[in-house]
Specification:
Layout (H helix, E strand, L loop, with lengths): L5 H22 L26 E5 L7 E4 L5 E2 L10 E2 L7 E5 L8 E4 L3 E4 L4 E4 L7 E5 L8 E4 L4 E2 L10 E2 L9 E4 L8 E3 L8 H6 L1 H9 L15 H5 L10 E2 L5 E2 L1 H18 L20
Antiparallel strand pairs: 1-2, 3-4, 5-6, 7-8, 9-10, 11-12, 13-14, 15-16
């Protein structure tokens, strides 16, 4: 029997060395796939999960999981699950309002109505705090936070109760042009007036200045409302003349006798009488300015 050649010996060595590797590869089992649900059917199959927007109508066991679409605005499902069904949407009632509507994959989001905030201690909607005069809003009232107020400082003011606005900057009167009628405080703005202006400053009316003037000149209770004011020309015309020859002195230092005063009073009365001649007739026409002819 002839001896095997070197080539044949080398082939046998390679075959014997590779055989265990081949057999080992065949005997090695493939890695088991991960089961997201962690549950299996009776046959060993991984239970499927229903995605967001779908709910379970039949859980897996003898058969595989069965899912159904949730109804938009009625039911929803947020997570992947092999057990959860579609849940009913939340309803915003009472002092709550809907911030985000319900969808098939998200529940409705309810927050407190405007002007209210959610008190985390009581778990109820409570009215937002209103900042008093002299204080402004530092942080506005929001869903779960009440209003935060701060005192008006550094030339700022707040002249009314307010749940929304911060302290406002004070008005600066123009130096050398306007007169400061009232300095700015934390409770009210400054009041300025230009002496050369032909109209009253708007701030007079805003600040209540005009109201105060009207109050000073309005008749007191029990007084005759027809009594003319001291500054009215009617008041001057209806005064009893002073004794003959008596001198009347004004604040300006100008003097006049009673006869001159009577002449001026008569002239003033005539002008006022003339300016009141326009009368509207019952038929809607306007009577002429000139008085009727004397009989």
């Amino acid at each position: 029997m002839s001896q095997p050649s070197e080539m044949e010996s080398l082939v046998w060595i390679l075959i014997c060395g590779a055989l265990p590797l081949v057999l080992g590869a065949k005997l090695e089992l493939p890695p088991e796939e991960d089961c997201e649900s962690g549950s299996f059917t009776d046959s060993g199959e991984c239970c499927l999960e229903c995605p967001p927007g779908e709910g379970v109508i039949k859980e897996c066991g003898a058969t595989q999981t069965e899912c159904s679409q949730c109804l938009d605005s009625e039911t929803f499902s947020v997570d992947f699950s092999h057990t959860e069904r579609c849940q009913p949407c939340s309803e915003c009632t009472g002092l709550m309002r809907m911030q985000t509507p319900c969808t098939d994959s998200n529940d409705a989001v309810c927050v407190c109505n405007y002007g209210y905030f959610m008190n985390e201690v009581t778990g109820r909607c409570e009215p937002c705090t209103t900042c008093p005069r002299g204080e402004g809003v530092e942080m506005r009232c929001e869903h779960s936070q009440d209003t935060v107020c701060e005192e008006c400082l550094d030339d700022t003011y707040s002249d009314q109760e307010n749940p929304m606005d911060p302290c406002m900057p004070c008005t600066l009167c123009e130096e050398g042009i306007e007169i400061v009628l009232r300095n700015c405080t934390r409770y009210e703005d400054a009041l300025c007036h230009d002496p050369l202006s032909t109209t009253d400053p708007t701030s007079f009316h805003d600040s209540g200045y005009a109201t105060e003037v009207d109050r000073l000149w309005s008749p007191r209770p029990g007084d005759d409302s027809t009594t003319p004011k001291p500054s009215s020309p009617h008041f001057i015309a209806n005064q009893t003349p002073s004794p003959e020859g008596e001198k009347l002195h004004s604040d300006s230092g100008i003097s006049m006798d009673s006869q001159s005063l009577q002449e001026q009073q008569a002239q003033t009365h005539t002008q006022l009488h003339t300016s009141e001649q326009i009368v509207v007739r019952v038929d809607g026409t306007v009577q002429p300015d000139s008085p009727p002819a004397q009989a």
